Amino acid sequence: MLSCIKDPDGPKIIVCCGSGGVGKTTISAAIGLYGALSGKKTIVLTIDPAKRLADSLGLKKFDVDAQRVPVENLIVCKDSATPDAGLYAMMLDAKHTFDQLIARYAPPEFQKKIFKNRYYQHLSNNMAGSHEYMAMEKLYEIFNQNQYDLIVLDTPPSRRALDFLEAPQRMLNILGHNFFMRMFKPYLKAGKWGIRFLNILASPVLKGVSKVLGKQALDDFAGFMQLWDDIMFEGFSRRATAVKELLAGNQTLFLAVATPQRLPMDEAIFLSEKLLLNEMPFGGFIINRVNFSNSNTEIQGFDSDKVFAGTRIDPELKEKLISVHNNILKMAKNDARSVNHLIEKTGSGNNVLQIPFSDSEIVSLDDLYRLSRLFE
Amino acid sequence: MSSENKDGHRIPGGKKAGITGSSVSGEPANPWLERLFSCRLIFVMGKGGVGKTTISIALACAAERMNKKVLLAEIGDTDSIGRLYRDQALSEAPRILTQSIWGARVDPKAELEAYVRAHVTPGFIAGKIVRSRLFEYLFEATPGLKEVMSLGRLWRWEKEENNHAGATYDLIIVDAPATGHAMSLLRLPDLLINMIRVGPVANQIRGLQHLLKNHQKTSLVLVSLPEELPANEAVEFYSMAEDTLDMPVAATFINCVYPAVFNRTDLQLIESIESSDWDFSFSAVSKLIASARILNRRRIDQLKHIEEIYAKANGHVQEIPFCYTNDLTINQIQELSFFI
């Protein structure tokens, strides 16, 4: 399913999506390794990585700047990587990315003001969608630097699976409208920026709002919106459109990562439907931590005397062994049912890659390598 | 052959499953639970996908058995509770789910509308505000407004007497959003009080602050899994709760713990079985042994993380057994609640 990554004309961007806790970051790292070992200079952009994953790659920690995984670490992988191939990792940080953007679009004399604005401080870190937006932003930036053959993006865990797709647009909807300023402008007292403030008394609506929110909050807000409108809106909105085009293009491939539990599966299905609806390039499902059974037979109906003939296992242990075995079988059956449900519902039998439970525990680069072999 | 254990967990009253931690011994004597339920407002916290909704409902069931009237409140985008109980989303107005459990979903926008209508006169101005685009944008973009409104709803439920149909809730159990979001929710009163100093919102925020930091009234409960990331996060959470929030964690639930079925003698036997002189020709036995080893290996992996949590946890730690299902039903959660 993922062998297209090896293809020189294959995807340049792989976006891994799915709910939190399904092992998305590990899968992303394995895809990155797979790409690097097939001779592509690859970078993995990740959020909130586990310490152990950094350890397994031989990195002290993930950083907001790209770091190369030491070449000697990749030697344990038996493939012969071409000399220029490299594996890089970078941690995404919403606030950091947001600050960089301001530095890019806002004139120096305003930057300080923006960074100090309480609205900005909150927005850059806390607002719904800001992390998703920044992930996309960083992706776009790195893609345009054209330094890598393959970019693997581990998206923020988001319960609303498609926040990251709609994030750029939503940010603009919230922040971007010129008419918003037009609405405020009649009530802005004239003066240089920074000393202009809202003449709240002039508008009954603003007056009402300020009664609820407090005048100071409204002033902060107006200040930020004005800066936004005057200085940054255009840059941001051009950018958002470009990001969307990039994601919808044929150099991008989306993957839905899930585990067989109901919530992650529902989310993966929802995601695939939404991607198809938006004509975004969907590559398939990776189902992590799938239990497979080691036998098709339930021992329940067996004659236990016969099964255990010649062994010295006492009756109590026999009972335990049988019940444990049946539970292990049950997990395998449940997981198979979940996966079948997914295939039926989406009609995508060829596009489902199942990763056995035992393979998902990653403690070393060897483990990551073993996982990446499953992508063949 | 007995099959009482085929669902993978036992109903207390039967044999102990060997789950470590406190044993379940009849209903009444359970001091930590009594203490927890002496708080009126309980936030169930944890990373996405660890089972916050399951534990919230299980706590509500346990409280119901102790003759308490419970409100289960959901904050966030999912409709998990409503879907589990009756296949439809909960609404802002509490609805009765079982004899003494009510369910509601906090809708910050409806809350803000009600708020504006309550504080802005004359009424037509309030209506104009609520319908205006400005209102939409302020609602989306004002830092923390949604959070304040959500908390405000909880605050009022806590304050009100005769909440619903003549009943006063003894307990309000909040199925909180995933940790990051929930943290900013609970930190908000501290942050906002510096931004908004006067007016009705400021008063509400002060009230909230008092409620959240009143250790007799408000408690945090953490849900985690015996896996690397959730366990790490749990360990970090304890210090954040204490230092940043000043809201100590009253109890931790470690969800999906594989039961310790085998004792030490069993395990020695299982590990040695291949090299023994037993007749190993029955493939069925080898399959059974393989399954036993799978369970044991996973249990060992889990134990490492369970120990990490015990080492750092404040308050009670309770392990909840894994149920061998991908899709818990409300009945299964009710059974699980006996482990609390």
Largest interface: A-B, 78 and 74 residues
Please identify the oligomeric state: heterodimer
> How are strands sequenced across the largest beta sheet of chain A?
3-4-2-5-1-6-7-8
Number of strands of chain A: 8
At CATH's second level, what is the architecture of the domain at 31-108 and 145-259 and 309-339 in chain B? Answer: 3-Layer(aba) Sandwich
The span between the termini of chain A is 7 Å
What structural class do you assign from the helix and strand content of chain B?
alpha/beta
Provide structural commentary:
The complex is a heterodimer of chains A (376) and B (340). With 376 residues, chain A is of the alpha/beta class. Chain A has a single domain (3-293, 338-373), classed as P-loop containing nucleotide triphosphate hydrolases (Rossmann fold), CATH 3.40.50. Helix content of chain A is 52%, strand content 11%. Chain A has helices at 24-37, 51-57, 71-74, 94-105, 108-116, 118-126, 130-145, 163-175, 178-184, 204-213, 215-248, 262-277, 304-307, 315-346, 365-373; strands spanning 13-17, 42-46, 67-68, 87-91, 150-154, 252-258, 282-290, 352-356. In chain A, strands 3-4-2-5-1-6-7-8 form an 8-stranded mixed sheet, sandwiched between helices. In chain A, helix 9 runs antiparallel to helix 11 (215-248). The longest helix of chain A has 34 residues, at 215-248. Chain B has a domain at 31-108 and 145-259 and 309-339: P-loop containing nucleotide triphosphate hydrolases (Rossmann fold). In chain B, 49% of the residues lie in helices and 14% in strands. Chain B is built from 13 helices and 8 strands. Chain B has helices spanning 31-37, 52-65, 80-86, 108-119, 123-131, 133-141, 145-159, 179-195, 199-212, 228-245, 264-272, 283-312, 330-336, and strands spanning 41-45, 70-74, 95-98, 101-105, 171-175, 218-224, 249-257, 316-321. In chain B, strand 3 (95-98) and strand 4 (101-105) form a beta hairpin. Chain B is elongated and about 85 Å long. Residues 1-27 of chain B have low confidence and may be disordered. At the A-B interface, helix 6, helix 8, helix 9, helix 10 and helix 11 of A face helix 4, helix 5, helix 6, helix 9 and helix 10 of B.
